[in-house]
Design brief:
The protein is an alpha/beta fold. The protein contains eleven helices and 15 strands. The chain has a 15-stranded mixed β-sheet with strand order 1-2-3-4-5-6-7-8-9-10-11-12-13-15-14. 31% of the residues are buried.
Length: 409
């Protein structure tokens, strides 16, 4: 060990640690000589905390110092709405290759950092971009967000693989024209757009594997519903394996039909109110599914699934996990699901919580009809409910959630 430099030893150790793990070591950085920025080169760099990103005159910093901070760095984040970043400095750093190793950028309070984003979208090796904003939907701030999207449209499409846009204000779906040309994308998440218009702009994204769409957001629901016929524009996205639809009300088989011709593995429909019973024959054609989640809350308008429509799910022999929230009138309807031979996890929520006797009847039905089932999770918005037990080899848990929660199913 004496033949190996102490720097190299610590570099090898720290490269396996994330920020929380590193803090947990409770090491004295000064005592161990860990103040050199290269020790954290594998971690995300908060550029709003780095002086030379905020100074218009880079002559105050040596190139050696800047290179040390950016050595092998791959991830940048901006997470302070009050800091004023220097567009001049960022332009210089991008133009002169200091940031060529960066592949991942995340910006919070995006409307405060439009000039910085304008230059960061020029990074030659950028693969992942996340834009988050919590503005109050004032016209000036919305205009800033729209300008930012134009910067994304103008960036090189040759490297960008992942794009996550999460706005608390709601922009017109016509602004989604910025996506045209980003044809290398394989992951796209959009939250904060009125999707009653503009879905046609996704039709050319032929390499998408993961698509997450939210009509509006948790704080604001647009006046008009999504026209499900617009979803037929997505029929050419044949590489999709994961689709998440949120706030798509009144869906029928027409809107889901484009996803029947591909090897879709996971489908989530969250807060999709008044789901038509005609969806279920279409769902039954998605025979590659291993996860299907229909997640509603007590606040949603839900049409119960008739038993004869529920039977269409029996063709999903590869289904491993199923969620049905507030979609069943009678737990006994589940006895028709005899064809789910691979199902291991079932997540349920009912309008009225089941008492102990009703729960035992449900468990009996499931054990008899779905022998592969290992875990039953009963979700409830009643936070006084609590239980965890085993019934004839079936693990039964009570899970609590509130409207708007991110439910991990």
């Amino acid at each position: 060990m004496r033949c190996i430099s102490e720097d190299l030893i610590w570099t090898n150790i720290i490269s396996y640690l994330d920020v929380d793990d590193f803090k947990a070591l409770r090491l004295s950085s000064k005592l161990l000589g860990l103040t050199d920025p290269k020790f954290g080169s594998h971690l995300t760099l908060r550029i709003d905390k780095v002086p030379f990103f905020c100074d218009n005159d880079l002559r105050n910093f040596t190139e050696e110092m800047i290179h040390k901070w950016l050595f092998k760095r791959t991830k940048l984040i901006i997470n302070d709405r009050h800091v004023k970043l220097s567009a001049i400095a960022i332009d210089y750093l991008v133009s002169h290759g200091f940031l060529d190793s960066i592949t991942n950028v995340a910006v919070y309070d995006s409307h405060c950092h439009r000039p910085a984003i304008e230059h960061l979208t020029r990074l030659p090796n950028l693969q992942s971009l996340k834009l988050v904003d919590q503005c109050e939907e004032e016209s000036s701030e919305t205009e800033e967000l729209e300008s930012i999207l134009l910067n994304v449209r103008n960036m090189s499409s040759s490297t960008l693989l992942n794009l996550d846009v999460d706005f608390d204000s709601v922009l017109s779906g016509t602004r989604l024209s910025f996506l045209r040309g980003l044809d290398k994308l394989n992951h796209l998440r959009l939250r904060g757009f009125d999707l009653s218009d503009g879905l046609c702009n996704l039709s050319s994204l032929n390499n998408l594997e993961t698509l997450l769409l939210c009509h509006g957001n948790f704080f604001s629901s647009p006046d008009d519903d999504v026209n499900e016929k617009d979803l037929t524009d997505l029929v050419g996205l044949r590489k999709l394996t994961t689709v998440h639809l949120e706030g798509f009300d009144c869906l029928s088989g027409i809107g889901l039909a484009p996803f029947c011709t591909i090897g879709l593995k996971s489908l989530v429909m969250k807060h999709c109110q008044e789901l038509s019973e005609e969806c279920f024959p279409t769902l039954g054609k998605m025979t590659s599914l291993n996860a299907l989640h229909i997640v509603n809350s007590a606040c949603d308008d839900v049409n119960p699934i008739p038993r004869d429509k529920l039977e269409h799910l029996n063709t999903l022999s590869e289904l491993n996990c199923l969620s049905l929230f507030y979609t069943l009138d009678d737990p006994a309807d589940l006895q028709v699901l005899l064809g789910l031979s691979s199902l291991e996890t079932l997540n349920l929520a009912f309008e009225e919580d089941l008492d102990s006797e009703e729960l035992e009847v449900l468990c009996t039905i499931l054990v008899q009809n779905i022998p592969s089932l290992k875990l039953l999770r009963m979700f409830s918005e009643n936070h006084d409910m609590e239980y965890d037990f085993e019934y004839l080899g079936l693990q039964v848990e009570c899970c609590q959630f509130r409207f708007g929660d991110l439910v991990f199913v």
